[in-house]
Specification:
Rossmann fold; single chain; 27% helix; globular; 13 strands; 30% strand; 214 residues
């Protein structure tokens, strides 16, 4: 049993890997956590995680620059249905388009676009940075098992995922209007917040992902 975190030159991989290792240990899951840029390790893994910090286009270019990685992801995630988790920009890359500094194609796995934050309250600053309450319907998704609405998660972002279909939005956060906090369909999920920085809430989300059987 293994979970891989993809290293494509973006993301706080060290803290993410440590959070996954802690969730594995606390849950006695017996999984191996690997950080890799090797598509063959992605093919052998049971679960796949795509972290990400930075600009949408830069992250997409970094992912595309890994020989064979895009093909391995499409094969393992879309065709074989392996559980996939995108974190922050890794979640945003699941969209059809990123509108940061121009129009850039995403993976196109969940219809929608990543667009600038425009809070209705001018007192709210961009980027959205800090702890905010999750808004969701209890029992709506396995990733939220054991959590309750209002639990805090840590956000750092200036753009947000505007999904085309409401059923793909699994949780929101209020910041001058509702923003997507958790998105998903089938075997795909993504968090705008950073579970590796969200303490107990984040560890619960990671643990739920590691146990998830879509």
């Amino acid at each position: 049993m293994s979970v891989v975190l993809i290293d494509y030159g973006s993301g706080n991989l060290r803290s993410a890997a440590k959070a996954f290792e802690r969730a594995v240990a606390e849950g006695a899951l017996g999984m191996r956590v690997t950080v890799t840029a090797d598509p063959e390790q992605v093919r052998r893994a049971e679960r796949i995680v795509l972290p990400g910090v930075g600009a949408f286009a830069d992250c997409k270019r970094g992912l595309d620059a890994l020989p064979g990685m895009s093909e391995a992801l499409a094969e393992q995630v879309l065709q074989r249905g392996k559980p996939f988790l995108g974190i922050c920009v890794g979640m945003q890359l699941m969209a059809s388009w990123g509108r940061e500094h121009g129009d850039h194609r995403g993976l196109g796995w969940i219809p929608g676009a990543v667009v600038p934050l425009q809070p209705t309250d001018p007192a709210l600053k961009v980027p959205h940075m800090g702890w905010n309450d999750l808004v969701f319907r209890p029992g709506s998704h396995a990733l939220l098992a054991g959590l309750h609405p209002g639990q805090h998660s840590y956000f750092v972002h200036s753009y947000h995922f505007a999904a085309e279909r409401t059923e793909h939005v699994l949780a929101t956060v209020e910041y001058g209007g509702p923003l997507t906090a958790l998105v998903g369909r089938d075997n795909l999920v993504g968090t705008q917040f950073h579970p590796e920085k969200s303490q107990a809430t984040g560890l619960a989300v990671i643990g739920n992902f590691l146990r998830w059987r879509p």
